[in-house]
Amino acid sequence: MSPAPIPITIRLQQADFDVAAEIAALARGRADVGAVVTFSGICRGGEGGEAITALTLEHYPGMAEAEIRRHVDEAVARWPLTGVTVIHRHGRLVPGDNIVLVVTASAHRQAAFLGAEFLMDYLKANAPFWKREERPQGAATWVEAHHRDDAALTRWKDS
Amino acid sequence: MKVLYFAWVRERVGKAEEVIEPPASVTTVGELMQWLAGRGEEYALAFAKPVIRAAIDHIHVKPDAPIAGAREIAFFPPMTGG
């Protein structure tokens, strides 16, 4: 018998999100949720000692949703999660703005922690989003991918 | 087939998407990139860096992936979301 489907929400949007409201939407009234972990990615005001005035996120509509869904399905297969929400913003953001939200629910904390971390590691390296940074002076530049983001994936391969 | 470009690949090519008809001798993603690179200066510049990634019908693929039957092929830099 396959397990009962769990609530999964994936949204790509320009608008901001409300972290508390997303937690409540996932956990309120549920008897099978004993732990909720959230990760919020927020636009920094600087990178490597240089000020950043804004960040523009480009994405591949259609593939972005599909790629996130594939990783959510894998997380659900690996850990006993009872709910997952992923929201990724696109468009122009300024320092302090929310960029991404991952919420994982489970009966116990370990699955929720691991599921959230796994999802963020995979989304950073595989979800088709690209950041372009604006600085006080000079032209905007595309952010280079970090080797450490690919390195972060290797630890999930053998476990 | 439809080809999409994102981020700096899109900026260098100068368009977000186009419909192309590569010759039958072009059978893989890597060969398609070489063929595209030969279409003009802007394409040569866009495809000069070996880091470009590709997806066929919304799924990441390697350069040796066959393009037969593909509806939509996208080219883009390594991802930097999250």
Written overview of the protein:
The complex is a heterodimer of chains A (159) and B (82). Chain A is of the alpha+beta class and 159 residues long. Chain A has one domain (10-154): Aldehyde Oxidoreductase, domain 3 (Alpha-Beta Complex), CATH 3.90.1170. Chain A has helices at 19-27, 63-78, 109-126, 147-154, and strands spanning 8-13, 35-42, 46-47, 50-51, 54-59, 81-89, 91-93, 98-106, 129-134, 141-142. In chain A, helix 2 packs antiparallel against helix 3 (109-126). The N and C termini of chain B lie far apart (30 Å). Helix content of chain B is 27%, strand content 23%. Chain B is globular and about 35 Å long. Chain B has helices at 7-13, 29-37, 41-46; strands at 2-5, 17-19, 53-56, 59-61, 72-76. In chain B, 32% of the residues are buried. Chain B has a domain at 20-70. At the A-B interface, strand 5, helix 2, helix 3 and strand 9 of A face loops of B.
Compact summary:
Chain A is of the alpha+beta class. Chain A has helices at 19-27, 63-78, 109-126, 147-154; strands at residues 8-13, 35-42, 46-47, 50-51, 54-59, 81-89, 91-93, 98-106, 129-134, 141-142.
Number of domains of chain A: 1
Largest sheet of chain A: 4 strands, mixed
Order of helices and strands of chain A: EHEEEEHEEEHEEH
- Gross morphology of chain B is globular
Question: What oligomeric state do the depicted chains represent?
Answer: heterodimer
Radius of gyration of chain A, in angstroms, nearest whole number: 16 Å
Strand content of chain B: 15-25%
Kindly state the mean pLDDT of chain A as a whole number? 93
Strand order of the main beta sheet of chain A, please?
1-6-8-2
The geometry of chain A reads as globular
For the secondary structure, the number of strands of chain A is 10
Q: Kindly estimate the percentage of residues of chain A that lie in beta strands according to DSSP.
A: 25-35%
